[in-house]
Design goal:
It is built from 18 helices and 23 strands. By secondary structure, it is of the alpha+beta class. A hairpin with a 2-residue loop joins strand 2 and strand 3. Helix 7 crosses helix 9. The longest helix has 20 residues. The radius of gyration is 30 Å and the shape is globular.
Length: about 575
Amino acid sequence: MQLSEQEIIRREKLSRLKELGINPYPANLFPVDHTSKQIKETFEEGKKVVVAGRLMSARIQGKASFAELQDSEGRIQLYINRDELCPTEDKTLYNEIFKKLIDLGDFIGIEGELFTTQVGEKTLRVKNITLLSKVLRPLPFPKTDAEGNTFDAFTDPELRYRMRYVDLIVNPSNKDIFIKRSKLFTAMRDFFNQAGYMEVETPILQSIPGGAAARPFTTHHNALDIPLYLRIANELYLKRLIVGGFDGVYEFSKNFRNEGMDRTHNPEFTVMEIYVAYKDYNWMMDFTERLLEHCALKVNNTTKAIFGNHEISFKAPFKRVTMTDSIKEFTGFDITGKTEEEIREAAKNMGIAVDDTMGKGKLIDEIFGAKCEGNYIQPTFITDYPKEMSPLTKQHRENPDLTERFELMICGKEVANAYSELNDPIDQRERFEDQLKLSEKGDDEAMFIDQDFLRALEYGMPPTSGLGIGMDRLIMFLTNTTSIQEVLFFPQMRPEKTAPSYELTEDEKLIISLLEKNENKFEINELKIKTSLSGKKWDKAIKALASHNLTKVSTEGEFKIIEYLA
């Protein structure tokens, strides 16, 4: 492992601490009795407190120093006087340990008493310092010049997501998003529990990936020697519990879909699903409005939320529009009574990419997604979906071509999906068989037939309404966050590039940096010009990179292309 100069120095300090008989990673409890926030809220002159956290700054001024300690709730200023810290003739704790061996980022425990400085700063006068954990890598502290310009701030999104632990240390304001996320889950749980519904758990490993149209992740169970799938939805298991006699069940479900990643999609995501017996989708719309109004108030203390340039109101009631009317409004095309081929031709005429594997439902979904979805900024229920789009939904009571389903749109994105649940086992079998036909046509997102779920329905499921809410998207709207990666502690990332096993020269670093800025590819002569290297330096650097398998050269038509492989 190659270490930087700073990392080498910190390891040398580690050794010196051990020579002084100090354990840099002590096992015993440290008796913290206050946080920085509690100190400020209950401040009393002369009060004795014990705190712990990271040392985040230090201004050493001979026999006295000021520093800042950061804990989970903020920062508190420290005042360290050599003679108060070391009242005997032995000044090692101040002169050697604090000034020379403790680094920024180290975890320390502080015992002391509170006072107010001459400029009014609430400060902790340090009486004792205990090293709790020695940090071996320096934190990326931002620097500010005399003109107020900031440098070296830890703002690169890929680094922040990959090293969230560093992001939370040096950008503590980002914690607010995750605190609000936790408040959202708590608010939703409280709302359901007060309504008398029960939180449950269902399998993540499933023999049939049911409950949604999506491409699953596949794995293998060695002991049973069978394929298994990571859950794409928990719907069919929750309905089994309604069959079993529960009136209302809900679950915060980690779901997994083997699909693309972008600013609103992650392959692992969280959905809340709730099923309530003896209800329909009209009742569920009213319930959803009240639920989201309650959650917005608990998270932000207001029913209004800012998202980008929009102010969203979560105040009930929400607007309601049928899917047929929405498509007619924004395209002029009426899907009522149209055949699959008529809808496919209409989609093509609208400039929407379609193919022969798409059935009627998917074609309608493509039209709505391309032409209608983005127009709904304020929370809006899109209702009464065509039957082909909703294989688990009860047929509409007034129109047999439609289903009793709604989706909630906010800022052009689906946040919730709900049905009057299909509880006719014969109808459900026919819908599954239609999905099987789509799969045979090449639709790799068509649903599987779940024979056990059909058997459960044959034992009888009462009239039921179900609701699913994308929790990640909802918290994005409540925190004005445009990327799903910002609301996930540890979003899925591409594998980290392995650092080269040898020291790159400055010329080699220049070539690689230019390749990285150009998506790891360059026409070789153009790259050579951009480097401004002499012929001799260019040849030497290119040969070295190729010999270490970091680059390769290939021919594309008339051009030679150099590619970065790391």
